[in-house]
Protein backbone atom coordinates (compact mmCIF):
# COMPACT_ATOMS: atom_id res chain seq x y z
CA UNK A 1 0.00 0.00 0.00
CA UNK A 2 1.51 3.36 -0.99
CA UNK A 3 2.29 5.78 1.79
CA UNK A 4 0.14 8.86 1.93
CA UNK A 5 1.76 12.26 2.19
CA UNK A 6 0.23 15.67 2.78
CA UNK A 7 2.52 17.15 0.19
CA UNK A 8 0.90 15.12 -2.55
CA UNK A 9 -2.50 16.37 -1.53
CA UNK A 10 -1.31 19.95 -1.59
CA UNK A 11 0.07 19.52 -5.06
CA UNK A 12 -3.40 18.44 -6.13
CA UNK A 13 -4.97 21.49 -4.48
CA UNK A 14 -6.94 19.27 -2.11
CA UNK A 15 -9.09 21.16 0.36
CA UNK A 16 -9.56 19.91 3.91
CA UNK A 17 -12.91 21.03 5.25
CA UNK A 18 -14.66 20.95 8.58
CA UNK A 19 -17.87 18.92 8.46
CA UNK A 20 -20.24 17.64 11.19
CA UNK A 21 -18.43 14.83 13.01
CA UNK A 22 -19.80 13.37 16.25
CA UNK A 23 -18.09 11.42 19.00
CA UNK A 24 -19.85 8.55 20.76
CA UNK A 25 -19.62 7.57 24.45
CA UNK A 26 -17.25 4.78 23.44
CA UNK A 27 -14.77 7.40 22.30
CA UNK A 28 -14.67 6.96 18.53
CA UNK A 29 -15.70 9.34 15.80
CA UNK A 30 -18.68 8.88 13.51
CA UNK A 31 -18.30 9.96 9.90
CA UNK A 32 -21.27 11.94 8.53
CA UNK A 33 -23.47 10.38 5.90
CA UNK A 34 -22.76 11.28 2.26
CA UNK A 35 -25.97 13.35 2.20
CA UNK A 36 -24.80 15.43 5.17
CA UNK A 37 -21.39 15.85 3.57
CA UNK A 38 -22.83 17.02 0.27
CA UNK A 39 -25.12 19.44 2.11
CA UNK A 40 -22.09 20.90 3.83
CA UNK A 41 -20.22 21.22 0.53
CA UNK A 42 -23.14 22.99 -1.16
CA UNK A 43 -23.09 25.64 1.54
CA UNK A 44 -19.57 26.63 0.44
CA UNK A 45 -19.43 30.04 -1.30
CA UNK A 46 -18.03 30.09 -4.85
CA UNK A 47 -15.42 32.72 -3.94
CA UNK A 48 -11.90 31.70 -2.98
CA UNK A 49 -12.04 33.34 0.42
CA UNK A 50 -12.63 30.82 3.18
CA UNK A 51 -15.66 31.14 5.38
CA UNK A 52 -16.92 29.32 8.43
CA UNK A 53 -19.51 26.55 8.10
CA UNK A 54 -21.63 25.90 11.14
CA UNK A 55 -22.34 22.17 11.63
CA UNK A 56 -25.92 21.20 12.53
CA UNK A 57 -26.72 20.10 16.02
CA UNK A 58 -26.78 16.35 16.61
CA UNK A 59 -30.18 14.87 17.34
CA UNK A 60 -28.80 12.10 19.56
CA UNK A 61 -28.56 13.01 23.23
CA UNK A 62 -25.54 10.76 23.74
CA UNK A 63 -23.57 12.31 20.89
CA UNK A 64 -21.47 15.43 21.31
CA UNK A 65 -19.61 17.68 18.85
CA UNK A 66 -16.02 16.70 18.17
CA UNK A 67 -13.62 19.37 19.46
CA UNK A 68 -10.52 18.15 17.61
CA UNK A 69 -11.46 18.23 13.94
CA UNK A 70 -8.45 19.52 12.09
CA UNK A 71 -8.63 21.79 9.07
CA UNK A 72 -5.92 22.59 6.62
CA UNK A 73 -5.98 25.65 4.39
CA UNK A 74 -5.45 25.25 0.69
CA UNK A 75 -1.92 26.18 -0.35
CA UNK A 76 -0.86 27.63 -3.66
CA UNK A 77 2.29 26.23 -5.28
CA UNK A 78 3.19 29.61 -6.92
CA UNK A 79 1.23 32.54 -5.46
CA UNK A 80 2.94 35.05 -7.77
CA UNK A 81 1.36 33.51 -10.87
CA UNK A 82 -2.19 33.43 -9.53
CA UNK A 83 -4.65 35.73 -11.25
CA UNK A 84 -5.81 38.28 -8.64
CA UNK A 85 -9.19 38.57 -10.32
CA UNK A 86 -10.48 35.10 -11.22
CA UNK A 87 -13.69 36.45 -12.72
CA UNK A 88 -11.71 38.36 -15.38
CA UNK A 89 -10.42 35.14 -16.90
CA UNK A 90 -13.39 32.77 -17.31
CA UNK A 91 -11.49 30.31 -19.52
CA UNK A 92 -9.00 29.56 -16.80
CA UNK A 93 -11.78 29.20 -14.27
CA UNK A 94 -13.54 26.69 -16.51
CA UNK A 95 -10.37 24.66 -16.97
CA UNK A 96 -9.72 24.44 -13.23
CA UNK A 97 -9.98 20.80 -12.10
CA UNK A 98 -12.66 19.79 -9.64
CA UNK A 99 -11.37 20.12 -6.10
CA UNK A 100 -11.33 17.19 -3.78
CA UNK A 101 -12.67 17.48 -0.25
CA UNK A 102 -10.98 15.86 2.68
CA UNK A 103 -12.28 14.99 6.15
CA UNK A 104 -9.96 14.45 9.08
CA UNK A 105 -11.20 11.99 11.72
CA UNK A 106 -9.56 10.93 14.96
CA UNK A 107 -10.08 7.83 17.10
CA UNK A 108 -9.44 7.14 20.76
CA UNK A 109 -6.89 9.77 21.82
CA UNK A 110 -6.08 11.54 18.53
CA UNK A 111 -3.01 13.26 20.02
CA UNK A 112 -1.37 9.86 20.62
CA UNK A 113 -2.18 8.41 17.19
CA UNK A 114 0.79 6.99 15.31
CA UNK A 115 -0.73 5.93 12.03
CA UNK A 116 -2.88 7.35 9.25
CA UNK A 117 -5.46 5.57 7.09
CA UNK A 118 -6.66 7.37 3.98
CA UNK A 119 -9.95 6.40 2.34
CA UNK A 120 -10.55 7.62 -1.19
CA UNK A 121 -14.24 7.49 -2.02
CA UNK A 122 -16.52 8.68 -4.79
CA UNK A 123 -17.23 12.32 -5.69
CA UNK A 124 -13.72 13.35 -4.66
CA UNK A 125 -14.29 12.64 -0.97
CA UNK A 126 -11.11 11.75 0.93
CA UNK A 127 -11.15 10.78 4.62
CA UNK A 128 -7.89 10.79 6.61
CA UNK A 129 -8.20 8.83 9.87
CA UNK A 130 -5.81 9.26 12.78
CA UNK A 131 -5.55 5.79 14.32
CA UNK A 132 -3.27 3.64 16.43
CA UNK A 133 -1.05 1.00 14.92
CA UNK A 134 -1.51 -1.49 17.77
CA UNK A 135 -5.32 -1.30 17.44
CA UNK A 136 -5.16 -2.10 13.74
CA UNK A 137 -2.71 -4.95 14.26
CA UNK A 138 -4.88 -6.45 16.99
CA UNK A 139 -8.21 -6.31 15.14
CA UNK A 140 -7.57 -6.36 11.39
CA UNK A 141 -5.97 -9.10 9.32
CA UNK A 142 -5.93 -6.71 6.37
CA UNK A 143 -3.72 -4.19 8.18
CA UNK A 144 -1.71 -6.95 9.84
CA UNK A 145 -0.59 -8.09 6.41
CA UNK A 146 0.39 -4.55 5.46
CA UNK A 147 2.12 -3.65 8.72
CA UNK A 148 4.34 -5.00 11.38
CA UNK A 149 5.41 -3.49 14.69
CA UNK A 150 8.69 -2.19 13.23
CA UNK A 151 7.25 -1.13 9.86
CA UNK A 152 8.54 2.29 8.80
CA UNK A 153 5.40 3.35 6.93
CA UNK A 154 3.08 5.64 8.84
CA UNK A 155 0.13 5.78 6.44
CA UNK A 156 -1.94 3.36 4.37
CA UNK A 157 -4.42 4.11 1.63
CA UNK A 158 -7.59 2.26 0.62
CA UNK A 159 -8.62 3.44 -2.86
CA UNK A 160 -12.03 3.25 -4.55
CA UNK A 161 -14.08 2.97 -1.36
CA UNK A 162 -17.74 2.68 -2.30
CA UNK A 163 -18.91 3.06 1.31
CA UNK A 164 -16.57 5.48 3.06
CA UNK A 165 -19.01 6.15 5.87
CA UNK A 166 -19.13 2.46 6.87
CA UNK A 167 -15.35 2.10 6.60
CA UNK A 168 -14.96 4.89 9.15
CA UNK A 169 -17.55 3.36 11.45
CA UNK A 170 -16.00 -0.12 11.19
CA UNK A 171 -12.56 1.19 12.09
CA UNK A 172 -14.18 3.01 14.99
CA UNK A 173 -15.67 -0.28 16.18
CA UNK A 174 -12.13 -1.53 16.70
CA UNK A 175 -11.96 0.86 19.65
CA UNK A 176 -15.13 -0.56 21.28
CA UNK A 177 -15.03 -3.16 24.01
CA UNK A 178 -18.45 -4.58 23.11
CA UNK A 179 -19.08 -4.48 19.38
CA UNK A 180 -22.32 -6.47 19.67
CA UNK A 181 -23.81 -3.92 22.04
CA UNK A 182 -22.92 -1.18 19.59
CA UNK A 183 -24.93 -2.92 16.82
CA UNK A 184 -28.14 -3.35 18.84
CA UNK A 185 -29.85 -0.19 17.60
CA UNK A 186 -28.64 -0.47 14.01
CA UNK A 187 -30.83 -1.50 11.07
CA UNK A 188 -30.38 -4.72 9.13
CA UNK A 189 -29.19 -2.97 5.92
CA UNK A 190 -26.58 -1.00 7.86
CA UNK A 191 -25.30 -4.04 9.74
CA UNK A 192 -25.04 -5.86 6.42
CA UNK A 193 -22.89 -3.00 5.10
CA UNK A 194 -20.70 -3.20 8.21
CA UNK A 195 -20.44 -6.96 7.74
CA UNK A 196 -19.09 -6.53 4.21
CA UNK A 197 -16.44 -4.02 5.32
CA UNK A 198 -15.53 -6.18 8.33
CA UNK A 199 -14.99 -9.10 5.97
CA UNK A 200 -12.72 -7.01 3.75
CA UNK A 201 -10.69 -5.73 6.70
CA UNK A 202 -10.53 -9.15 8.36
CA UNK A 203 -12.14 -7.72 11.51
CA UNK A 204 -13.27 -11.09 12.89
CA UNK A 205 -14.88 -9.99 16.17
CA UNK A 206 -16.99 -7.41 14.31
CA UNK A 207 -17.82 -9.97 11.61
CA UNK A 208 -19.03 -12.51 14.19
CA UNK A 209 -21.01 -9.82 16.04
CA UNK A 210 -22.75 -8.86 12.80
CA UNK A 211 -23.63 -12.51 12.16
CA UNK A 212 -25.00 -12.82 15.70
CA UNK A 213 -27.10 -9.71 15.12
CA UNK A 214 -28.47 -11.00 11.79
CA UNK A 215 -29.26 -14.37 13.34
CA UNK A 216 -31.34 -12.79 16.11
CA UNK A 217 -33.12 -9.91 14.39
CA UNK A 218 -36.20 -10.36 12.12
CA UNK A 219 -35.70 -9.78 8.39
CA UNK A 220 -38.46 -7.66 6.85
CA UNK A 221 -39.33 -7.35 3.16
CA UNK A 222 -36.36 -7.15 0.82
CA UNK A 223 -33.94 -7.47 3.73
CA UNK A 224 -34.24 -11.26 3.62
CA UNK A 225 -33.24 -11.52 -0.02
CA UNK A 226 -30.27 -9.18 0.46
CA UNK A 227 -29.03 -10.95 3.59
CA UNK A 228 -29.42 -14.46 2.20
CA UNK A 229 -27.80 -13.54 -1.11
CA UNK A 230 -24.72 -12.13 0.57
CA UNK A 231 -24.45 -14.91 3.14
CA UNK A 232 -24.62 -17.60 0.47
CA UNK A 233 -21.91 -15.81 -1.47
CA UNK A 234 -19.88 -15.53 1.72
CA UNK A 235 -20.47 -19.18 2.54
CA UNK A 236 -18.90 -20.22 -0.76
CA UNK A 237 -15.95 -17.83 -0.57
CA UNK A 238 -15.03 -18.61 3.03
CA UNK A 239 -16.02 -22.30 2.88
CA UNK A 240 -18.27 -21.60 5.88
CA UNK A 241 -15.34 -21.08 8.26
CA UNK A 242 -17.48 -18.53 10.10
CA UNK A 243 -20.35 -20.95 10.75
CA UNK A 244 -22.86 -19.32 8.41
CA UNK A 245 -24.87 -22.48 7.74
CA UNK A 246 -26.80 -22.38 11.06
CA UNK A 247 -27.83 -18.80 10.31
CA UNK A 248 -29.24 -19.84 6.94
CA UNK A 249 -31.44 -22.46 8.63
CA UNK A 250 -34.01 -19.70 8.82
CA UNK A 251 -34.60 -20.00 5.09
CA UNK A 252 -33.44 -23.55 4.29
CA UNK A 253 -34.02 -27.02 5.67
CA UNK A 254 -32.25 -30.36 5.79
CA UNK A 255 -35.49 -32.30 5.45
CA UNK A 256 -35.86 -35.01 2.83
CA UNK A 257 -36.92 -34.18 -0.71
CA UNK A 258 -40.49 -35.42 -0.24
CA UNK A 259 -40.98 -33.38 2.94
CA UNK A 260 -42.40 -30.27 1.15
CA UNK A 261 -45.02 -32.42 -0.55
CA UNK A 262 -45.97 -34.07 2.75
CA UNK A 263 -46.18 -30.67 4.42
CA UNK A 264 -48.39 -29.33 1.65
CA UNK A 265 -50.68 -32.34 1.96
CA UNK A 266 -50.97 -31.68 5.69
CA UNK A 267 -51.78 -28.00 5.11
CA UNK A 268 -54.46 -28.77 2.52
CA UNK A 269 -55.97 -31.44 4.76
CA UNK A 270 -56.21 -28.97 7.65
CA UNK A 271 -57.98 -26.46 5.44
CA UNK A 272 -60.38 -28.99 3.93
CA UNK A 273 -61.42 -30.36 7.31
CA UNK A 274 -61.94 -26.99 8.96
CA UNK A 275 -65.49 -26.26 10.12
CA UNK A 276 -64.92 -22.61 11.12
CA UNK A 277 -66.22 -20.65 8.14
CA UNK A 278 -64.32 -17.39 8.51
CA UNK A 279 -60.94 -18.94 9.31
CA UNK A 280 -61.51 -21.44 6.51
CA UNK A 281 -62.12 -18.70 3.94
CA UNK A 282 -59.09 -16.73 5.06
CA UNK A 283 -56.71 -19.68 4.96
CA UNK A 284 -58.05 -20.78 1.57
CA UNK A 285 -57.25 -17.33 0.24
CA UNK A 286 -53.76 -17.41 1.75
CA UNK A 287 -52.91 -20.90 0.47
CA UNK A 288 -54.25 -20.08 -3.01
CA UNK A 289 -52.11 -16.94 -3.18
CA UNK A 290 -48.97 -18.77 -2.05
CA UNK A 291 -49.55 -21.61 -4.49
CA UNK A 292 -49.94 -19.06 -7.26
CA UNK A 293 -46.58 -17.53 -6.29
CA UNK A 294 -45.05 -21.00 -6.30
CA UNK A 295 -46.46 -21.64 -9.77
CA UNK A 296 -44.87 -18.40 -11.03
CA UNK A 297 -41.50 -19.31 -9.53
CA UNK A 298 -41.48 -22.66 -11.36
CA UNK A 299 -42.11 -20.94 -14.72
CA UNK A 300 -45.38 -22.80 -15.26
CA UNK A 301 -43.86 -26.26 -15.08
CA UNK A 302 -45.64 -29.08 -13.28
CA UNK A 303 -44.50 -29.16 -9.67
CA UNK A 304 -44.83 -31.50 -6.72
CA UNK A 305 -48.13 -30.10 -5.45
CA UNK A 306 -50.22 -31.33 -8.43
CA UNK A 307 -50.27 -34.92 -7.20
CA UNK A 308 -51.22 -33.76 -3.72
CA UNK A 309 -54.07 -31.65 -5.08
CA UNK A 310 -55.53 -34.53 -7.08
CA UNK A 311 -55.33 -36.88 -4.12
CA UNK A 312 -57.34 -34.34 -2.12
CA UNK A 313 -59.84 -34.06 -4.99
CA UNK A 314 -60.41 -37.81 -4.97
CA UNK A 315 -60.97 -37.84 -1.20
CA UNK A 316 -63.53 -35.04 -1.50
CA UNK A 317 -65.29 -36.73 -4.44
CA UNK A 318 -65.59 -40.01 -2.55
CA UNK A 319 -66.93 -38.23 0.52
CA UNK A 320 -69.41 -36.21 -1.56
CA UNK A 321 -70.73 -39.33 -3.29
CA UNK A 322 -71.28 -41.09 0.06
CA UNK A 323 -73.16 -38.08 1.41
CA UNK A 324 -75.33 -37.96 -1.73
CA UNK A 325 -76.14 -41.63 -1.29
CA UNK A 326 -77.23 -41.01 2.29
CA UNK A 327 -79.30 -37.95 1.40
CA UNK A 328 -81.08 -39.72 -1.48
CA UNK A 329 -82.27 -42.67 0.62
CA UNK A 330 -86.07 -42.83 1.05
CA UNK A 331 -85.84 -42.92 4.85
CA UNK A 332 -83.51 -39.90 5.02
CA UNK A 333 -86.46 -37.58 5.58
CA UNK A 334 -87.46 -39.56 8.71
CA UNK A 335 -84.11 -39.02 10.41
CA UNK A 336 -83.58 -36.40 13.09
CA UNK A 337 -82.99 -32.78 12.12
CA UNK A 338 -79.49 -32.98 13.55
CA UNK A 339 -78.56 -35.89 11.28
CA UNK A 340 -80.05 -34.16 8.22
CA UNK A 341 -78.27 -30.91 9.02
CA UNK A 342 -74.98 -32.72 9.47
CA UNK A 343 -75.35 -34.45 6.09
CA UNK A 344 -76.40 -31.30 4.28
CA UNK A 345 -73.56 -29.34 5.83
CA UNK A 346 -71.15 -32.08 4.80
CA UNK A 347 -72.38 -31.86 1.20
CA UNK A 348 -71.89 -28.09 1.18
CA UNK A 349 -68.45 -28.45 2.74
CA UNK A 350 -67.19 -31.04 0.26
CA UNK A 351 -68.62 -29.15 -2.72
CA UNK A 352 -66.88 -26.00 -1.51
CA UNK A 353 -63.65 -27.97 -1.09
CA UNK A 354 -63.85 -29.30 -4.65
CA UNK A 355 -64.60 -25.85 -6.00
CA UNK A 356 -61.54 -24.44 -4.21
CA UNK A 357 -59.28 -27.22 -5.50
CA UNK A 358 -60.67 -26.76 -9.00
CA UNK A 359 -59.84 -23.04 -8.86
CA UNK A 360 -56.23 -23.86 -7.99
CA UNK A 361 -55.97 -26.45 -10.77
CA UNK A 362 -57.48 -24.12 -13.37
CA UNK A 363 -55.19 -21.31 -12.29
CA UNK A 364 -52.22 -23.60 -12.86
CA UNK A 365 -53.71 -24.91 -16.16
CA UNK A 366 -53.57 -28.51 -14.94
CA UNK A 367 -57.29 -29.19 -14.47
CA UNK A 368 -57.86 -31.51 -17.44
CA UNK A 369 -57.87 -34.65 -15.30
CA UNK A 370 -60.38 -33.06 -12.92
CA UNK A 371 -62.78 -32.50 -15.84
CA UNK A 372 -62.37 -36.17 -16.75
CA UNK A 373 -63.16 -37.22 -13.19
CA UNK A 374 -66.17 -34.93 -12.94
CA UNK A 375 -67.59 -35.96 -16.32
CA UNK A 376 -67.54 -39.58 -15.18
CA UNK A 377 -69.64 -38.99 -12.05
CA UNK A 378 -72.81 -40.55 -13.46
CA UNK A 379 -73.94 -41.88 -10.09
CA UNK A 380 -73.45 -38.54 -8.40
CA UNK A 381 -75.46 -36.80 -11.13
CA UNK A 382 -78.16 -39.48 -10.83
CA UNK A 383 -78.63 -38.74 -7.12
CA UNK A 384 -78.61 -35.00 -7.79
CA UNK A 385 -82.31 -34.74 -8.70
CA UNK A 386 -83.31 -36.64 -5.52
CA UNK A 387 -81.92 -33.98 -3.18
CA UNK A 388 -83.54 -30.64 -2.31
CA UNK A 389 -82.13 -27.81 -4.40
CA UNK A 390 -80.90 -25.93 -1.34
CA UNK A 391 -78.68 -28.92 -0.50
CA UNK A 392 -77.35 -29.71 -3.96
CA UNK A 393 -76.92 -26.35 -5.71
CA UNK A 394 -73.23 -25.93 -4.71
CA UNK A 395 -72.44 -29.04 -6.72
CA UNK A 396 -73.70 -27.24 -9.82
CA UNK A 397 -71.20 -24.45 -9.05
CA UNK A 398 -68.47 -26.97 -9.84
CA UNK A 399 -70.01 -27.69 -13.23
CA UNK A 400 -70.36 -23.97 -13.93
CA UNK A 401 -66.68 -23.38 -13.04
CA UNK A 402 -65.61 -26.14 -15.43
CA UNK A 403 -67.57 -24.51 -18.26
CA UNK A 404 -65.90 -21.19 -17.46
CA UNK A 405 -62.49 -22.88 -17.49
CA UNK A 406 -63.14 -24.44 -20.89
CA UNK A 407 -64.43 -21.14 -22.26
CA UNK A 408 -61.31 -19.31 -21.09
CA UNK A 409 -58.91 -22.01 -22.24
CA UNK A 410 -57.76 -22.78 -18.68
CA UNK A 411 -58.55 -26.45 -19.21
CA UNK A 412 -58.38 -28.33 -22.52
CA UNK A 413 -60.34 -31.59 -22.24
CA UNK A 414 -60.83 -33.84 -25.22
CA UNK A 415 -63.95 -33.76 -27.40
CA UNK A 416 -65.22 -36.98 -25.79
CA UNK A 417 -64.78 -35.45 -22.31
CA UNK A 418 -66.66 -32.29 -23.33
CA UNK A 419 -69.49 -34.35 -24.79
CA UNK A 420 -69.69 -36.43 -21.62
CA UNK A 421 -69.65 -33.32 -19.42
CA UNK A 422 -72.64 -31.81 -21.22
CA UNK A 423 -74.46 -35.14 -21.30
CA UNK A 424 -74.05 -35.74 -17.54
CA UNK A 425 -74.08 -32.27 -15.94
CA UNK A 426 -75.73 -29.74 -18.27
CA UNK A 427 -79.30 -30.60 -17.26
CA UNK A 428 -78.56 -30.54 -13.47
CA UNK A 429 -76.96 -27.12 -13.99
CA UNK A 430 -80.09 -25.83 -15.76
CA UNK A 431 -82.28 -27.21 -12.96
CA UNK A 432 -80.28 -25.29 -10.32
CA UNK A 433 -79.61 -22.15 -12.38
CA UNK A 434 -82.28 -19.94 -10.87
CA UNK A 435 -81.16 -20.84 -7.35
CA UNK A 436 -77.50 -20.23 -8.21
CA UNK A 437 -78.24 -16.67 -9.32
CA UNK A 438 -79.81 -15.77 -5.99
CA UNK A 439 -78.10 -18.02 -3.45
CA UNK A 440 -74.46 -17.89 -4.59
CA UNK A 441 -72.85 -14.51 -4.08
CA UNK A 442 -69.76 -15.06 -6.28
CA UNK A 443 -71.85 -16.52 -9.14
CA UNK A 444 -71.35 -14.40 -12.29
CA UNK A 445 -74.13 -15.18 -14.71
CA UNK A 446 -72.58 -13.54 -17.79
CA UNK A 447 -69.25 -15.31 -17.34
CA UNK A 448 -70.91 -18.68 -16.83
CA UNK A 449 -73.18 -18.28 -19.85
CA UNK A 450 -70.20 -17.27 -21.99
CA UNK A 451 -68.35 -20.39 -20.84
CA UNK A 452 -71.30 -22.70 -21.52
CA UNK A 453 -71.83 -21.24 -24.99
CA UNK A 454 -68.17 -21.52 -25.96
CA UNK A 455 -68.04 -25.11 -24.74
CA UNK A 456 -71.07 -26.07 -26.83
CA UNK A 457 -69.56 -24.39 -29.89
CA UNK A 458 -66.46 -26.60 -29.66
CA UNK A 459 -68.59 -29.67 -30.49
CA UNK A 460 -69.54 -30.89 -33.99
CA UNK A 461 -72.20 -28.79 -35.68
CA UNK A 462 -74.88 -31.48 -35.41
CA UNK A 463 -74.42 -31.69 -31.65
CA UNK A 464 -74.48 -27.90 -31.37
CA UNK A 465 -77.87 -27.95 -33.10
CA UNK A 466 -79.30 -30.65 -30.83
CA UNK A 467 -78.14 -28.99 -27.59
CA UNK A 468 -79.11 -25.43 -28.56
CA UNK A 469 -82.58 -26.39 -29.82
CA UNK A 470 -83.22 -28.24 -26.55
CA UNK A 471 -81.97 -25.18 -24.65
CA UNK A 472 -84.20 -22.88 -26.72
CA UNK A 473 -87.33 -24.79 -25.76
CA UNK A 474 -86.38 -24.62 -22.08
CA UNK A 475 -85.42 -20.93 -22.25
CA UNK A 476 -88.73 -19.96 -23.88
CA UNK A 477 -90.54 -21.53 -20.90
CA UNK A 478 -88.29 -20.55 -18.00
CA UNK A 479 -86.81 -17.22 -19.14
CA UNK A 480 -84.19 -15.89 -16.74
CA UNK A 481 -84.35 -19.09 -14.70
CA UNK A 482 -82.44 -20.69 -17.57
CA UNK A 483 -78.98 -19.78 -18.94
CA UNK A 484 -79.15 -17.25 -21.76
CA UNK A 485 -77.15 -18.75 -24.63
CA UNK A 486 -78.26 -16.35 -27.37
CA UNK A 487 -74.68 -15.54 -28.43
CA UNK A 488 -73.86 -19.19 -28.94
CA UNK A 489 -77.19 -19.62 -30.77
CA UNK A 490 -76.30 -16.79 -33.18
CA UNK A 491 -72.89 -18.30 -33.91
CA UNK A 492 -74.48 -21.68 -34.58
CA UNK A 493 -77.07 -20.02 -36.84
CA UNK A 494 -74.39 -18.30 -38.95
CA UNK A 495 -72.40 -21.52 -39.19
CA UNK A 496 -75.49 -23.43 -40.33
CA UNK A 497 -77.33 -21.00 -42.63
CA UNK A 498 -75.02 -18.17 -43.68
CA UNK A 499 -71.48 -19.48 -43.98
CA UNK A 500 -72.32 -22.43 -46.30
CA UNK A 501 -74.14 -20.01 -48.63
CA UNK A 502 -71.17 -17.64 -48.70
CA UNK A 503 -68.83 -20.55 -49.46
CA UNK A 504 -71.09 -21.65 -52.30
CA UNK A 505 -71.10 -18.16 -53.77
CA UNK A 506 -67.31 -18.10 -53.52
CA UNK A 507 -67.03 -21.42 -55.36
CA UNK A 508 -69.28 -20.15 -58.18
CA UNK A 509 -67.09 -17.13 -58.70
From TrEMBL:
Positions of the UniProt region annotated as Disordered: 41-108
Listed Polar residues bias regions: 55-70
A Pfam family assignment: BTB-POZ_ANK-like
Domain At3g05675-like ankyrin-like: 262-499
Pathway where this protein functions: Protein modification; protein ubiquitination
Keyword field: Ubl conjugation pathway
Biased composition (Low complexity): 77-91
Function of the molecule: May act as a substrate-specific adapter of an E3 ubiquitin-protein ligase complex (CUL3-RBX1-BTB) which mediates the ubiquitination and subsequent proteasomal degradation of target proteins.
Protein name: At3g05675-like ankyrin-like domain-containing protein
Amino acid sequence: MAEFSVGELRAQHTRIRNVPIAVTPEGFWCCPSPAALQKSLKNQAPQNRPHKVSPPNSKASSVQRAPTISSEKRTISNPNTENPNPSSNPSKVAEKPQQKHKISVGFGQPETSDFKVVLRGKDGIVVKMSVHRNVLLENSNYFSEKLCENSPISCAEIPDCDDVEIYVETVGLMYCKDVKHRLVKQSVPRVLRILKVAEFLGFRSCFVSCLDYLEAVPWVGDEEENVVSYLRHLQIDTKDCYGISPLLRRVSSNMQNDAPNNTLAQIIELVLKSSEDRARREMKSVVSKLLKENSSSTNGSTDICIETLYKSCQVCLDSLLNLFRQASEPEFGNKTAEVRDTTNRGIALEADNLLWLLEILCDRHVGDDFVIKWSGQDELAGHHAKLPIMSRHLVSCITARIFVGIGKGEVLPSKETRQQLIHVWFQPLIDDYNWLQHACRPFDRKVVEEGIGRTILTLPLEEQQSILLTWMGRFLKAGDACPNLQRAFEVWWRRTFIRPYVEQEGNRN
